[in-house]
Amino acid sequence: MISKRIAAALAGATTVSLLLVACGDNGGGGQSSSSSGDSVKSLTILDYYNNDPDKSLVQKGLDSCASQLGITIQRETVPGDTLIQKVLQQASSKTLPDVLMLDNPDVQQIAATGALAPLNDMGLNGDGVIKGMVDATSYQGKLYGLAPVTNTIALFYNKDMLAEAGVQPPKTWDELKAAAKKLTKPGRYGMAFNANATYEGSWQFLPAMWTNGGDETDLTSPQVAEALQLWVDLVKSGSASKSVINWTQGDVNDQFIAGKAAMMVNGPWQIPALNKYPKIKWDVVTFPLNKPDQTPVAPLGGEAWTVPLNKDQAKQQKAADFVKCLNSDANELAWAKARFTLPTKLALLDQYAKDVPSMKAFAEQVKTARARTGKLGDKWPDAAKVIYQAIQLALTGKASAQDAFKQASGG
Amino acid sequence: MVVLTRTTVAGRERVRGRRRRGEDLTKVLFVLPAAVAMIALFGYPVVKNLLMSLQDYTLKTFFTGVAPWVGLQNYSTVVHDKLFADAMLNTALFTIGSIAFQFVIGLGLALFFRNRFPLGGLLRSLLLLPWLLPLIVSSATWRSILEQDSGILNRTLMGLHIVNDPVPWLNSPSVALIAVIGVNIWIGIPFNVTLLYSGLSEIPDELYEAGQLDGATGWRAFFHITWPNLRSVAGVVLMLGVVYTIKVLDIILGLTGGGPANATQTLATQSYEKSFVDFKFGQGAALSNILIAISFVFAIFYLRSTRRAVDE
C-alpha cells in the first residue's frame, strides 16, 4: 500500500521534473521543440505594423518570402508603443518569436542584452546597405538586424501658399525664418514641427543639430546651441505655434492638412494621409542649411528585422533566411514603393527616386543620413532625453538656447 | 460490558477528534482560496516591487534573469534626482488642489440635487458622464479644448473678451499644472457627488423638521445637522480621493506627458518614465514604493478614524 503510494508520488515528481526540463530546453525560442533538421515548417513573427494599410502591405511581403522558403508564418502585431514591453514580457517567459521587428534605434539596446543572434554567422551581411543603417543595426562589430526600407524627415511645403506669398522653398536657415515669417498670417503659421518631451521631439531636432555640425557626444557645443536657437527664433517670432512643445508628428501633419501651417518637418509616412486631400499641393525639399557649405544630415528611421537567439539551430537559420529574403532587392523596392519608404541599398536609391518623384528629396536626404545610435550605441536614449528636455526648457523660456543643454544634462 | 463501553467511549472520542480535525480542515479550505488570491494578487506584486527596488533591474534582466543586489542605492538615486523635489511638490499640489475643489464642488452639487425638481434625476445621471468616459478619451478631448490657438476654450474666452491674448493652458510651465488639475477636478466630481449624495439621503428628514422647529435652517441646518451626519461619508470620500488622485498617471500623460519643461511631473509620471521610458525598473519601483508608502499613511489614518467611529 505505502510503497505503491510512494511509487505514485515518485512517478508524479519525475513527470513534473521532466516537464520542467523540457520547458527549460525549449527556452530559447519558438513553441515546438520537435522540429529539427531542415524540417522547419513555420516561423513566428512579431512586429508593430498594426494598422492598415501598412499591416496588409507588410503581410504581402512576409507572405511572399514565406512561400519562397516553403514555410507558413504566424504573425502577431502590437501597437508601436507597446512593442518593447511585449518583447520584455516574452523574454522573461522565454517565448520570443522566431523573427522580431525592432525600431532601428532599439536594436543595439536589445542586442546588448544578448537576446539576438548575430546574423553574420548565418550568411547575412550589410553589403551595399547605406552606412547609417548598418551602424544602427550593428552592435560591437556584429550585425544583428537588417532593414529592407528606411525613412527620414525633411521639409514639406504647401506649394500654393508659397506661390501666393511669393516665397521660394528655403535653402538656408535665414531663408527658412524669413519664409516662415512671411507665410504667417492670422489663423496660419509659417512653420510647424514637433518639439514635444519625447524621443520624437529629439528626432525632429536632429536635422538642424547634425546639419550644423552638432554632435550628441558633446551637446554643450555652440553648434548644438545654434540649432536650438533656430527653433527658439521660429517660436519666439510667432512663425511657429507655441503648441509645438505638445505636438506629435501626427499633430504637425494635421496642422499642415488643415492649412494652419505652410511648411512642416515630417516624414514620408505622412504621404498617404496627405494624398487623401488632393486639393493640397505639396512638395518636399531637404532640410535647410545654416551655412551654404554644409550638407544636410538627417536621422534615419525605419524598422529592422532581427532573429532572437534560438536553441533550435535549424529554426534560427530559417529565420535568418527569412530576414535575408525580406531584404532582397525586389522586396526592398516593392515595400518602398507601396509604403512611401526608401530602399536601404545605395544602388537602388537613384532609380527609385526617378520612379517615385515625390520621394526625391527623401532619397537625397537618406544618402547622408545618420543613425541615432551610430555614435553612442545603447547610450543614445540618455542623450535623446537631454535633447528633448533642453528643447522644452528653451522653448518655454526657462533657459536660453546657450544654457538649455547644460541645464538639461544636470549641470 | 465494561470492555464494550470503554471501546465505545474511546471510539466516540476518536470520532469526535476526527470530526474536529475535519472541521479545522474545512475552515482552512474555506480560507485557502481567498488567501491564495490575496497572496497572488496583492502579496506577490508588493513583495516583488520591494525586491525590484533593491536590485539593479534593467532591460538586460528580462533576458538573463540577472539583477544585481544594490541595497538602497535606487532610493538614494531617485531622491537625489533633480526632478524629485519638483515631482513631490507637484504631486502635493495636484492632490490637494484636485481633492479640495472636487469635494467642495461635489458637495455643493449633492446638496443642490437633494432638492427635488423636474429633470433632477436626469441631470444627476448626466453628471456621471465624465466618470464613464475612458480617461484616454477625456484627456485627448481636453487636449484639443485647451489648445492655445484653436482650442474652443480660448476661442470662447477671447470671443467674450474675458482675455485679450490666448491663455497658454498646456504650453506654459506656470499654467500647465493648473490646467491639468482643472481637468482632474472635472473627472473627479461625479465620484464625489455620487457618494456625498447617497450620504445626504441617509440623513433622516425628521432631523431637519425638528431642527426647523428650533430655528435651524439654511447654513445653520447645514452646520448642525447635515455636516455632523455626513462626516463619516465625507471621511471616506476624502481618503479614497487622496489615494486615487496621488497615483493619477493617464490624465497627465495624455495631456502634457509631464511637460512642458517637466512642469507637470509627479511621482507617478516619474515612476512610469523611469520604468518604461528609461527601462530603469529598479528606480521606477523605488519611486512607486515611495508613492505606496504615502498612500499607506493615508490608508492607516482612514482605517483608524473609521475604527474609532465603529467603537463609538
TrEMBL record, chain A:
GO terms for biological process: maltodextrin transmembrane transport; maltose transport. GO terms for cellular component: ATP-binding cassette (ABC) transporter complex, substrate-binding subunit-containing. Transmembrane segments: none annotated. GO terms for molecular function: maltose binding. It holds the Pfam family SBP_bac_8. Keywords: Signal, Transport. InterPro entries: SBP. Residues 1-22 form the signal peptide. Belongs to the bacterial solute-binding protein 1 family. This is Carbohydrate ABC transporter substrate-binding protein (CUT1 family). It comes from Kribbella pratensis.
Automatic annotation (TrEMBL), chain B:
One of its GO terms (cellular component) is plasma membrane. It holds the Pfam family BPD_transp_1. Keywords: Cell membrane, Membrane, Transmembrane, Transmembrane helix, Transport. It comes from the Bacteria. InterPro entries: MetI-like, MetI-like_sf. The chain crosses the membrane at residues 28-47, 92-113, 125-145, 175-197, 233-255, 281-303. It is found in: Cell membrane. Its main location: membrane. It is a multi-pass membrane protein. Residues 88-302 form the ABC transmembrane type-1 domain. One of its GO terms (biological process) is transmembrane transport. Belongs to the binding-protein-dependent transport system permease family. PANTHER family: BLR7065 PROTEIN, SPERMIDINE_PUTRESCINE TRANSPORT SYSTEM PERMEASE PROTEIN. This is Carbohydrate ABC transporter membrane protein 1 (CUT1 family). It comes from Kribbella pratensis. The lineage of its organism: Bacteria, Bacillati, Actinomycetota, Actinomycetes, Propionibacteriales.
